[in-house]
Design brief:
disordered N terminus, single chain, 72% helix, 191 residues, 0% strand, mainly alpha
Length: 191
């Protein structure tokens, strides 16, 4: 029992640390990514095919999310509990393909497993503690990979106001800037 409580505390403390470091670590990862990537036109186009769906899922999810106000169970949240992270995962996969480097695959997987999974669990702990309906929702809707039919929940519609409130356009700006940097790197090394 004592070891379990200690283990729970260390997981909780790592979850707090992971929440704090995920954004700065993301910028560091982006810099390392650009340094290590060896893109070609083909790899950029192939990886780029995943960028649009990734941005679409993230943008759609942000337009439904009423963070800390209510448990969001409609829109993409009726298919997966974490559509924002699913969209990020699809974006990351697109950029990993564009990089053409196994070391980036390993770094991205490590970052997802060591940082994003604990953050997801931490956020779910918060939802579980603050929204009694979360347990039923979690029993019917998978954590990350979507199901094919929607969970029956209260309906709400996409809100452009929420999209801008959550500053989801930053994902679009970051994706465009990183894509331009990859194209420039591919052209530079082609010389």
């Amino acid at each position: 029992m004592r070891q379990s409580a200690c283990s729970e505390r260390s997981v909780s403390s790592w979850q707090r640390i992971a929440r704090r470091i995920r954004v700065p670590l993301g910028f560091l990862f982006a810099a390392i990514y650009l340094w290590l990537a060896h893109p070609t036109r083909l790899s950029i186009v192939t990886g780029g095919l995943l960028l649009i769906p990734g941005l679409w899922v993230r943008g759609l999810a942000s337009g439904y999310l009423r963070k800390n106000e209510q448990l969001t169970m409609s829109g993409p949240y009726a298919y997966t509990r974490n559509p924002l992270y699913l969209g990020s995962l699809v974006l990351a996969l697109g950029f990993v393909i564009a990089s053409r480097r196994w070391v980036i695959v390993i770094l991205a997987a490590a970052m997802f497993l060591l940082v994003y999974i604990p953050v997801i669990r931490s956020e779910e702990d918060f939802l579980r503690a603050n929204f009694p309906q979360f347990e039923t929702y979690a029993q019917h809707v998978p954590r990350l990979f979507p199901r094919f039919h929607a969970f029956k929940s209260s309906s709400s519609s996409f809100s452009l106001h929420l999209y801008f409130k959550h500053r989801e356009y930053n994902a679009l700006v970051g994706t465009v800037l990183m894509s331009v940097a990859l194209i420039a790197k591919a052209l530079w090394f082609r010389r």
